[in-house]
Amino acid sequence: MGHSRTILGRLILFPFLHGFILLCMSMSTPLESATLSSGNTFGSETDRLALLDLKKRITRDPFHVLGSWNDSIHFCNWVGVTCNPSTKRVLILKLNSHKLVGSLPPSIGNLTHLTGINLRNNSFHGEIPQEIGRLQSLQALNLSQNSLGGKIPTNISHCTQLRVLNLYSNHIIGSIPNQLSSLLNLNILWIDINSLTGAIPAWLGNFSSLHELFLPEHFQGSIPNELGRLTSLEVFSLAANNLYGIIPSSIYNISSIKNFSVAANQLHGELPRNPGINLPNLETFHCGDNKFTGTVPASLLNSSRIQILDFPLMVSLGHSLLKILEACEA
């Protein structure tokens, strides 16, 4: 049940996130020069070779989207490739949802002007190369819905301009590397539906620009108090983990939260009295399959934005909610 609720929440939020990611990936960057220099010519050749190396690693291309990747046209006109018009350096690599099968070569790190990578919804396998850390202009990395394994590369920590890190639905193992604490510009962190383990790092509380936080399903321990510092957060999803203890009260004061889910854990304690007041933008509130006690906060029932409420069986409906249910049945 907890897992199905997580999927439901993702289906509701995915159109928004998809649009946001595409927006991030279509962002333009300032022109580096009005004319091509010899250095840029060399860089362009480096980019071309890196793209051809990626093509070699793709073993299945049922829609023939890489058919244009040859010397008959300039690589800036290849399908899925967007270049800076002046420097002819690759800015965006967008090959999502083409049923591609293959792996990522280390040479992807040679595309040093990349601001966006979107390979979502394919069948890429193998590990994410450490060389991706060379992409220091990267703002959006979307490798979600593939079959990538291994650990999260620690060298991603060098991509300090990163705003979107989406590794959702792969086979990634290990823990969240502490090196990722350098990604202070992150707006979106999706790393759930993987095989990551460990505890929630307290340093996530330093990501003051974070809007959406989706963590994996195998984390243990308590929820760090530091997460209460994420004052820009709109989506807080820690569902289907092995978390215990109480939810830090500071999290209930993040007024920007729209979607809140801690369902299917081992959390306990009483629910706060006024989440409908302290969280005025709240639309979904999932806390079922936990050990919470007390009554459903009346302020949630009076909130005009609430669409979905999910509570544990141990939580009493309370007089106000019973009155509402009786009125609906009458």
UniProtKB/TrEMBL annotation:
Domain Disease resistance R13L4/SHOC-2-like LRR: 89-213
GO molecular function: kinase activity
Pfam families per the UniProt record, alphabetical: LRR_14, LRRNT_2
Cellular component per GO, a single term: membrane
Keywords: Glycoprotein, Kinase, Leucine-rich repeat, Membrane, Receptor, Repeat, Signal, Transferase, Transmembrane, Transmembrane helix
Keyword Oxidoreductase listed: no
Topology within the bilayer: Single-pass type I membrane protein
Primary location group: membrane
Domain spans labelled Leucine-rich repeat-containing N-terminal plant-type: 45-84
Coiled-coil stretches noted in the UniProt entry, renumbered to this chain: none
Compartment list: Membrane
The keyword Kinase is assigned to this record: yes
Signal peptide (from-to): 1-33
Entry's family note: Belongs to the RLP family.
Protein name, UniProt field: Putative LRR receptor-like serine/threonine-protein kinase
